[in-house]
Amino acid sequence: xxxxxxxxxxxxxxxxxxxxxxxxxxxxxxxxxxxxxxxxxxxxxxxxxxxxxxxxxxxxxxxxxxxxxxxxxxxxxxxxxxxxxxxxxxxxxxxxxxxxxxxxxxxxxxxxxxxxxxxxxxxxxxxxxxxxxxxxxxxxxxxxxxxxxxxxxxxxxxxxxxxxxxxxxxxxxxxxxxxxxxxxxxxxxxxxxxxxxxxxxxxxxxxxxxxxxxxxxxxxxxxxxxxxxxxxxxxxxxxxxxxxxxxxxxxxxxxxxxxxxxxxxxxxxxxxxxxxxxxxxxxxxxxxxxxxxxxxxxxxxxxxxxxxxxxxxxxxxxxxxxxxxxxxxxxxxxxxxxxxxxxxxxxxxxxxxxxxxxxxxxxxxxxxxxxxxxxxxxxxxxxxxxxxxxxxxxxxxxxxxxxxxxxxxxxxxxxxxxxxxxxxxxxxxxxxxxxxxxxxxxxxxxxxxxxxxxxxxxxxxxxxxxxxxxxxxxxxxxxxxxxxxxxxxxxxxxxxxxxxxxxxxxx
Length: 507
Prior knowledge:
Residues 1-18 form the signal peptide. The protein has 3 domains: 26-170, Porin (Beta Barrel), CATH 2.40.160; 187-338, Porin (Beta Barrel), CATH 2.40.160.20; 355-506, Beta Barrel (Porin), CATH 2.40.160. By secondary structure, it is mainly β. 2% of the residues lie in helices and 66% in strands. Strand 21 and strand 22 (418-429) form a beta hairpin. Strands 1-2-3-4-5-6-7-8 form an 8-stranded antiparallel barrel. An 8-stranded antiparallel beta barrel has the order 9-10-11-12-13-14-15-16.
């Protein structure tokens, strides 16, 4: 864990800019939530929760089309730990202007878990919904959807309901002039942290055994990320994602979201409380249908915009046989992202207190080429199987960036397999639009009977990046993943696209 924290500390070394003139493009975006019941054959139906983030207008000539990332997790049934991550594209158009819209879209992703009949892990989910705006920022949805694992045995037409929180995304570009401007006053606070989540002192569970409490079970430790956003009157929204790397439960994951309240005590000290719900399971942990809750309280320390937080609380599976205490330790950074709902599509912004931070988001296909070794079930690993990957990157300077990523299997015999990563990437320019890259990451993985020992893994890659235009790039990487204690050591090949999402932040 010291290695993870050391890597994250490098994000603190940001470059300051002069008073630049910026071109800011405002794009409509939204947080979308959905719920549906997926029919299963010969077992309890699944309660399926979906949430994601989508942006309109990434293709300038198609402002009604949206693209984003979404996740789905089981909350009820017998398949706790069934998670799917993927990408969504669709179109939204008005039926009754400014009030009622129709929304048609398609999700493609990879995942699985808990022995569900997910085949290779590919999930396809088309939907057609009606969406009614109850206010400028909130809308309610209802419609029909299909949840289909084409290579598995899950195929269900469903009625779904949901809601969206409508917001804006502000993409920034430099203009080559230096001027003294006004002071920017509109900001949205977001905090991004590396997270260590530790479960212990079990009141129920933790493992699937014939005993109510297994007092000899090891503590479970997860590594992941935590995002806080929207701080308003000391309240904020929160998202936590973690995967196990200690406890011999590789494949166990938690994906939770909720609300927190932070009370400042001094300029550098605060206390807070959080309540979260979501999905959890896998790794032979007794989580019932997968519905998970957490309540916790903690103390936070702030040094400039750098954050350290310790929280203690209770983790509970209402539909399962799991309850424990947990201790969270996080280390991260606070950003104040520029926003201004009053600007239109594209405007110039001049300010003394802004600088541009270069973020990017990538999605790619990962192919694993395995040697003649056997998985936990005694089968020889597939010669090749494919996963879908997602990567968020923050440039520290022109050559080094910090990277967080997740990868989910969708083809082959390992539909439940997933990974989470954190590390660094190095760039070496080869010309005006080409760069060579080198990357090193550490993380946690598991599922699908792949032998990762306790779940701790690392990877190294070499690659190239070709800039297509100011917004899009093509990426390709080759390298290797290695399990610290397991026998999974495949060669990897990544190919995908990168989206520039540079933001203006408070200087």
